[in-house]
Amino acid sequence: MYYFIVNKTSGNGRSIKIWNEIEGILKEKKVTYMVLLSSNKIEVLEYISTIKSRNSRVDGVVALGGDGTIHEIINQLIGTVYPFTVIPTGSGNDFARARGITKDYEQEIDRILKKGQQTIDLLKIGDRHCMTVVGIGFDGKVAKEANEMKLKKWFGGLAYFFIIFKVLISYKPTYTKLLLNGEERIFERVWLIAIANHPYYGGGMKICPDATSNDGKLDICIIHSLPKWRLLFILAAVFKGKHVTMTGVEYVQVESIEVESNEPLYVTADGEIMGQTPTTVTVTKDAFHVIS
Length: 292
Ligand SMILES: Nc1ncnc2c1ncn2[C@@H]1O[C@H](COP(=O)(O)OP(=O)(O)OP(=O)(O)O)[C@@H](O)[C@H]1O
Fold this sequence. Notes:
Elements: E1 2-7, H1 14-28, E2 33-38, H2 41-54, E3 60-65, H3 67-77, E4 84-88, H4 94-99, H5 105-113, E5 117-125, E6 128-130, E7 133-137, H6 138-149, H7 152-155, H8 157-170, E8 174-180, E9 183-196, E10 200-201, E11 205-206, E12 218-224, H9 228-238, E13 249-254, E14 256-261, E15 266-269, E16 272-276, E17 279-291
Parallel strand pairs: 1-2, 1-3, 3-4
Antiparallel strand pairs: 5-6, 5-17, 7-9, 7-15, 8-9, 8-14, 9-12, 10-11, 12-13, 14-17, 15-16
The chain binds adenosine-5'-triphosphate.
């Protein structure tokens, strides 16, 4: 049995239209499935509890949504061996981008029905798990604004571009103390800290180009000690992942990071607001099953 979870709110209602097409294909191929058309997170929790209580074979749990939808589902599925995947219908779709999952849903259904599986790592932040990137500081503030403005519903990845400029006008870098695998590092003027399991966030920004979800490591990009105008050049280079060797960019791979700052910084995971610093992020190796 395949279980589909369609987030009616993601991608400005696009998911429902795509689901209607997909349902036609599933019926044609005589696939057994159940579907939840959800408009809030509580429904996801109840649906996944029902799947667990059925105690029957689960061939796959498939999300139709963006990274926020994935975030919610992985946090309910964690601890199970149900294979998960996504058909991207959100505005950013950074998990799908990282794994080469396309918007060609006929092709993606064929992939899903082949039943290939693999295990991947997840990031752990407090009691939540994160699939893509934890963003702290400037990027945390950008994600917060993006969620509040709902602009990304209309402009997709392009919305982040406008919001970056808006936040940049008033944002000030912060004194930050990091513990990287327990070793203290002080950064006087931090713009952002991105902690990654997959390379992309913000609708295609390749912030941690070497991040892979099967190495048991956090890839961390720290942008610091730069004037504002230089940050703009760095951010432009991020789209191609060419920023990592530039002055003011530190790129490390570790198993744990603790972040303290002299004023609270926004922390996001998969584009969802988690809270503010101080915070600790670790990696859980082979924590989760996905359809390959
Ligand atoms: N299954 C669900 N049903 C309804 N709402 C959900 C569900 N899962 C998550 N949400 C909420 O819906 C919001 C939007 O979902 P999502 O982030 O997937 O779409 P998006 O914003 O269009 O895409 P992206 O994150 O890729 O930019 C999330 O911020 C989350 O709070």
